Amino acid sequence: MNTATLSAGTLALLLLFFSLFFQTFQQTDKLQEEDNPITRFQNYLRINTAHPTPDYLSAISYLKSQAQSIGNLQTQIFEFAPLKPLLLITWKGSNPTLPSILLNSHLDSVPAEPSKWIHSPFSAVRSSDGKIYARGSQDDKCIGMQYLEAIRNLQLKQDFQPLRTIHISYVPDEEIGGFDGAAKFAASKEFRDLNVGFMLDEGQASVNDEFRVFYADRSPWHLIIKAVGMPGHGSKLFDNSAMENLMKSVEVMSRFRENQFDLVKAGLKANSEVISVNPVYMKAGTPSPTGFVMNMQPSEAEAGFDVRLPPTADPDLLRRKIADEWAPATRNMMYQISERGPIRDNMGGPLMTATNGSNPWWAVFENAITTAGGKLAKPEILASTTDARYMRQMGIPTLGFSPMTNTPILLHDHNEFLKDSVYLRGIEIYESIIGSLSSFNEVSTF
Ligand SMILES: *[C@@H]1O[C@H](CO)[C@@H](O)[C@H](O)[C@H]1NC(C)=O
Ligand SMILES: [Zn+2]
Question: Which of 44, 78, 336, 390 is 20 to 30 A from 294, comparing alpha carbons?
């Protein structure tokens, strides 16, 4: 064939072929460019797992596909409560008889009000200075993906083989108490069979360059106190009205709250080391079409409090205080304490993980961070509450840790974000931690 026989039609076909080829090539290139740790994180953030309608199935299917793309990992889905799926990813160690390592994160997040955000809370927009805006970027989808990215790097870049088995759990419902999530998981036979020796769960951002670590949570109680009394005309002075009885209690409780707060203000204790008692609602009065009946003293009055106990507080002492001083029957008071989760472990001890020589995992964890060039702040009690309490209840040493330094604490806030560089640094930190923990060859009798 000589060039003279190339018709215009052939030329057009050739052109078409090249342009198609070029397009495909460009597309592949674009796809490859888009599949990196940051875009994988953004894609996870774009799945709306906010309450009250968290899309657990999409989140689990995404994480499962990530695990499959890494390879060498097994996945299992459990449902300890209907419509509350839990994903477990497992990387088998060379000695599966040794107690395993569990890395936990929750799938859900609190709701977001889009109108108060500069970018839509589920778009995961990355600003020019690297901030990735999304509900869940700090709490706690970062760690959920960082665990996987660290394992990806350990496998693909370092050809690392774990001695101990490593599990990652993705649990539902943490933000609404974890009762159908981590609580049921921790109490299950499936959990016992994992033979977990040490566990990491979420922590909180640090505003300076030291990583924070948490060895305990505070236990939340919902306290409702209620007063009853004779109703009476609004003009009448008489003893023991419901409102008077309730207000006396509020006074006593306010004084207690002030004393606890003073310890914090004086720098003697951290916020998370005292008992907090915060009023959250008051309910009284006789409704009228225009508001409340004003010339009538009601026969019932009620108030609700959010109470948080550090692990060092004595729950029996507080129960007695409530019965004797905050809602005494002698003042026609009733009360109801609803304990939102355990307060003591199965051996009767406080729910905390030792951060000294008595816990051999502590040194491994601490060294792993130092080895990766990180600095660790003094271990703290978390002011709020996480799923970790259910695992500590089972006697499993558990630390709360989210590797975010130089980051404002924005969990549950508008415009929650995490910087790309902080996220990527966190992956390196986890490579060191997971590598060290899974190579740890002692406490085999745990
Ligand atoms: C280690 O810490 C635990 C819990 O905080 C404490 O009870 C124990 O006495 C400490 N042990 C040592 C050896 O310091
Ligand atoms: Zn969280």
Answer: 336
